[in-house]
Amino acid sequence: MRFSKSLIPTLKENPAEAEVSSHRLLLRAGFIRKLTAGIYTYLPLGLAAVRKVENIVREEMNRAGAQEILMPMVQPADLWHETGRYEKYGPELLRFVDRHERESCLGPTHEEVITDLLRREVRSYRDLPQNLYQIQTKFRDEIRPRFGLMRGREFIMKDAYSFDVDDRSAEESYQRMFDAYMRIFSRCGLDFRPVEADSGTIGGSFSHEFMVLADTGEDTLVICSSCDYAANSEKAAVMAVTEDPSPMLDLEKIETPGKRKVPVVCEFLGIEAQELVKTMVFSAAGEPVAVLVRGDREVQDVKLKNLLGVADVEMLGDKDVFDATGVPTGYLGPIGLKIKLVVDNEVAAMKNFVTGANEKNYHCRNVNMGRDFEASAVADLRQITDTDPCPSCGEKLVMREGIEVGHVFKLGTGYSEAMHAVFQDSDGQDKPMVMGCYGIGVSRIVAAAIEQNHDENGMVFPLPIAPMQVILLNLGVKDVQITEASELLYKELLEKGVDVLLDDRDERPGSKFKDADLLGIPLRLTLGKSFSKNGLVELRHRSNGATEELLPHQVTERVLKIINLAATK
RNA sequence: CGGAACGUGGCGCAGUCUGGUAGCGCACUUGUCUGGGGGACAAGUGGUCGGAGGUUCAAAUCCUCUCGUUCCGACCA
Fold it and tell me: Which end of chain A is more exposed for a tag (fewer CB within 10 A), N or C?
């Protein structure tokens, strides 16, 4: 690829619209251009990086026994009605009607389409297992697209689906995909962690996310400092505490005029937030539900959602709380509360705590569960913190930010039952296929890789996913000797299958160096002064700035060696 | 969904408060010099000031509506 003939519109200045580094650099380096919010065109180098990632994904999926297909982006609403997701999925699903007034949508994911395919084509247990994948553009009408390729509305995703005869076999499929994902992200040169995750709207029984560690990540992870436990903080289990053995004291109602917020009540009563229990009211599928957590804790709504078995929970506003309970917020408590009540484990182990009295300007002291109120469920409902012990080994936890680049789910039979995707087993019985689904954000990997690998001069690509492996700088386009040698080297590298960008523009050396750094191409070859003087070619590593001087005939061999080393690492 | 900011040549911005000739840097074109970390000089090209409506002798500037973009937040009682 010749720089002079390519569309690589680099920018000297930071675009006003980009905040995070990957977004800024992708625009500055001329990898992408925005069409409209969350929707981008990939320019030659941007696409080249995407293709590199795709190829790694493809190789590893194929190696794991998955088969590549390509499904439609436009999907009929009927399929989505079958699984109930046309209603449930929410406004992220872009819906429209075609000229025949048929309801349709743009695929944000393909469980319905693939399940429809398999139910038509698979009759017998002999046809299973199947694992099919595609690399395709997805559309999700995000509320707030941001950070360039990180959270776009249109993005490139690899999605795979497995179909098995039973749970045991499905778990093997899951494990195969898990292993393939480990290889994929390692090969991409990413610093990542697989973490236990919530299975979200797609549903299913268990799942892992693959998180690239980066400060700009939108998810928070907890990682054990001692064992290999790691989880998304919204899922991370909090260890149950042992019950406080103190005897129960007499219940006492106290006047707390105007004291509503936890710190205010605590200060007024001279207690710590750990001695108080707050009562939060959520709406779950239209029903109000009260949740008790300790005063200094936060309810983790994903855990609540899972306990209640609903798609979504939402905290009620002051007015809705009053309508549901007859009590103004700030004075809520469990005693005599008329709505459903669920209690965090930690609270269940507490004795003689303070709560609201369900009466304006009053709280209660020495409240005890079992004596003063009953809960309809006790469960782990609070957000984990970094002072909590590791749920696996009890050691210290560390919290980190992460970018989700992959997600594997064991789906079970939810979709296959809803859509009657059955096969005849060896005993002659019809059984639903056991499914799994596995996603990778291909375009997001490019962004995450840049987020994780850049410096003040630009991107620093890991070799395996770099759009180009080598940038060859001809610093003397008007010098016949330098130009001839550059062209020769360029051809030689191309012949050996090296991806090389020849900077043959009539620019000053400074501009070429700056652009080379910005583009983040791992290996830079320079033919300039020291070539004229001593016939030497400079090889410089973008990542650490190390340089070596080589004779022209040594260059290709040396470059190939470095590339092969990076590939086998 | 709530809040805020911004929209002026390709990019980054000033001008708007206080209405009166549309400006700066970069990029681009031509020429000369220069040639290892975003060169210098000279001469040029390019803008319905996001859109619509209104006020005014006069609107980038004031008013109304609208579209677009970005950022923050989404309630812990």
Answer: C
**Length A39 CA → B51 C1' (Å):** 22
Task: Say if CB A379 and CB A307 are below 8 A apart.
Answer: yes
Give strand letter and number of the nucleotide nearest A506 (CA to C1'): B35
Is nucleic acid strand B under 7 Å from A298's C-beta?
A: yes
Q: Global pTM?
A: 0.92
Spatial contact of A520 and A466, defined as CB atoms under 8 Å apart: yes
Alpha-carbon gap, residue A468 to A553, rounded angstroms: 21
Which residue shows structure tokens 């609070």?
A: A382
Nucleotides of strand B under 7 angstroms from a protein beta carbon: 1, 6, 11-13, 25-27, 34-39, 68-77
The per-residue pLDDT for range A501-560, each reduced to its tens digit, is 999 999 999 999 999 999 999 999 999 999 999 999 999 999 999 999 999 999 999 999
Q: How many helices (H) and strands (E) does chain A have?
A: 16, 31
What tokens were used for A329? 């917020």
Tokens of A171: 């778990």
Distance CA A464, CA A13 (A): 28
In chain A, % of residues over pLDDT 90: 81
> Would you say the C-beta of A314 is within 7 Å of strand B?
yes
A15 touches strand B (CB under 7 A): yes
Q: Identify whether the C-beta of residue A338 lies closer than 8 Å to the C-beta of residue A279.
A: no
Q: Which residue is nearest nucleotide B34, judged by alpha carbon to C1' distance?
A: A508
Average predicted confidence (pLDDT) for chain A? 93
Region of A532 on the Ramachandran plot (φ > 0 left; ψ -120 to 50 alpha; else beta): alpha
**Residue A471 token pair:** 């940038």
Contact present, A213 and A452 (Cβ < 8 Å): yes
**Interface pTM, i.e. ipTM:** 0.93
Name the E strands within A425-551: 430-432, 434-441, 454-455, 458-459, 470-474, 500-503, 523-527, 537-541, 547-550
Q: Angle between the A552-568 and A480-495 helix axes, to the nearest 10 degrees?
A: 40
DSSP3 helix / strand / coil % (chain A, rounded to 5): 30, 30, 35
User: pLDDT tens digits for A26-36?
Assistant: 999 999 999 88
A259/A271 Cα distance (integer angstroms): 13
A6 within 8 A of A44, measured Cβ to Cβ: yes
Structure-token match 């039952």, residue found: A417
Phi/psi at A90 (5° precision): 85, -175
Burial class (CB in 10 A: 0-12, 13-18, 19+), A456: exposed
For the CA of A35 and the C1' of B19, the distance in angstroms is: 36
Tokens of A2: 């010749």
